[in-house]
Amino acid sequence: MGKPVVALHDPFPGVSVDAAAVLDALASPIVVIDASGMIVHVNGAGEELFKGSAANLEGLALDTLLPADSPLFSLIEQVRAQGTAISEYGVTLQTPRIGHHFFNIQVSALAKLPGCVVIALHQRSIADKINHQLTHRGAARSVTAMASMLAHEVKNPLSGIRGAAQLLEQNCAPDDRPLTRLIRDETDRICALVDRMDVFSDGVPLRREPVNIHQVLDRVHQLARNGFARHLRFQEDYDPSLPPVSGNHDQLVQVFLNLVKNAAEASPKDGGEIVLSTAYRHGVRFAVPGSEARVHLPLMVGIHDNGGGIPEDIQPHLFDPFVTSKPSGSGLGLALVAKIIGDHGGVIEFDSRPRHTVFRVRLPTVAENGTRDGEET
Ligand SMILES: Nc1ncnc2c1ncn2[C@@H]1O[C@H](COP(=O)(O)OP(=O)(O)OP(=O)(O)O)[C@@H](O)[C@H]1O
Ligand SMILES: [Mg+2]
Fold first, then answer.
1. Most buried of 1, 64, 139, 172 (most Cβ within 10 A)?
2. How far is the C-alpha of 99 from the C-alpha of 138, rounded, in Å?
3. What is the 3-state secondary structure (H, E, C) of 144-203?
4. Per-residue pLDDT reduced to its tens digit, 83-134
5. CA angle, corner 351, sides to 347 and 352, nearest 5?
6. How much distance in Å is there from the Cα of 75 to the middle of ligand 2?
7. 41: helix, strand or coil
8. pLDDT of residue 130
9. What is the Å distance from ligand 2's center to 304 Cα?
10. Which amino acid residue places its CA nearest to atom 28 of ligand 1?
11. CB 210 within 8 A of CB 246
12. Going by CA atoms, what residue is nearest to atom 19 of ligand 1?
């Protein structure tokens, strides 16, 4: 079979942009393969990755450069079968030739050349990997352990201390009463904090049912605009055709309430605006830490604000408990969010720069048989 011709020249008269030069300017490796798996184009970043010139690489079969059992090849098959674009996050590619890399991969079909696909490999750092999908699980685990510890080791002695203070109060001199009251009030405060932590301990398993995510967001919106966010403008950008989520209504309300509360607290007093968005994202799959499994998390909810952004120094630990930049914050909001999203089999990520911060929550939908959608092993 002859080599397919890839149109790499701009067809607009008067504007001569060489598409190959554009691809060469990109930092991410881009590879085009034909229906037989042979490389027909590779950009400059691709030459660097595969340690060869385009002249040498073009004409080689991609599976001579990458292990045949790489998840990339099943992605390519899928794209050919469906004729759509698919993204996969967190794929490791490793060979002696290219070394060890961690990529977000995007594979798209070339409509005009049947069987041909374009592969874009977006390098991700290990820190990014941890931020993107592992942090919240790790954070949730450490919070779970801490919650159980607090309940046993702190709450019980505290009730003893409180009782003792109460007894002392009955017999002590009136001048000392403020001190015993101080002990009581402070133990009450610590008890309340421990109670807040209690939700983290792994007690009752999550009760799931089909949940309409827009009902959850409407509830959150209503609570926010009548309370802590009454001075802000809200905008809703919803995809009304979304299928239900497999989850727990009350816990999801808690998640989005925490996110909207943070957004409200970050927003400027004047001109503050929060955007709530939902969308269905085909073909976005995530690696499950510790296994080869990939889950399909097509339902995306975004909470956007135009506040000052997340302080850079806390970003790597954002979902850990007790991480806060607020004088009276407990730093439990996002840890709780991460725990609940993790229990739902979803993921949360954020992007933040001054005047635009977004938290994106991706969740599994309910398949027709009532189980989680698209879980693969
Ligand atoms: N939308 C946002 N914009 C800017 N910073 C944010 C945003 N969301 C979270 N943060 C940062 O993340 C930190 C942790 O948030 P988290 O909700 O866990 O705790 P908190 O809001 O400080 O306290 P709590 O929620 O327990 O009252 C915040 O203190 C803030 O610095
Ligand atoms: Mg908060």
1. 139
2. 27
3. HHHHHHHHHHHHHHHHHHHHHHHHHHHHCCHHHHHHHHHHHHHHHHHHHHHHHHHCCCCC
4. 888 888 778 888 888 888 888 888 999 888 888 999 999 887 544 544 444 4
5. 140
6. 38
7. strand
8. 40
9. 15
10. 324
11. yes
12. 331
Q: How far does residue 319's CA lie from ligand 1's centre (Å)? A: 9
Measuring from each residue's beta carbon to the nearest atom of ligand 1, which residues come in under 6 Å?
258, 262-263, 266, 305, 307, 309-311, 314, 318, 323-326, 329-335, 357
Q: What is the residue-wise DSSP string for 215-243?
A: HHHHHHHHHHHTTTTTTSEEEEE--TTPP
Name the stretches of the chain with pLDDT < 70: 1-16, 125-146, 148-152, 199, 201-204, 283-284, 286-294, 367-377
- Number of the ligand 1 atom closest to the C-alpha atom of 324: 29
Distance 324 CA to ligand 2 centre (A): 8
The CA 375 to ligand 1 mean position distance, Å, reads: 32
Of 129, 134, 137, which is closest to residue 339 (Cα–Cα)?
137
Which numbered atom of ligand 1 lies nearest the CA of 311? 31
| Residue 95 to residues 59, 259, 322, Cα–Cα distance (Å) | 20, 41, 41
Retrieve residue 5's tokens.
């011709």
For 260-289, what is each residue's pLDDT tens digit?
999 999 999 999 999 999 999 876 676 655
Token reading at 48: 């660097």
Which atom of ligand 1 lies at the shortest distance from residue 335's CA? 18
How far is the C-alpha of 215 from the C-alpha of 213, rounded, in Å?
Answer: 5
State the distance between the two ends of the chain, measured CA to CA, in whole angstroms.
36
Residue nearest to atom 25 of ligand 1 (CA): 333
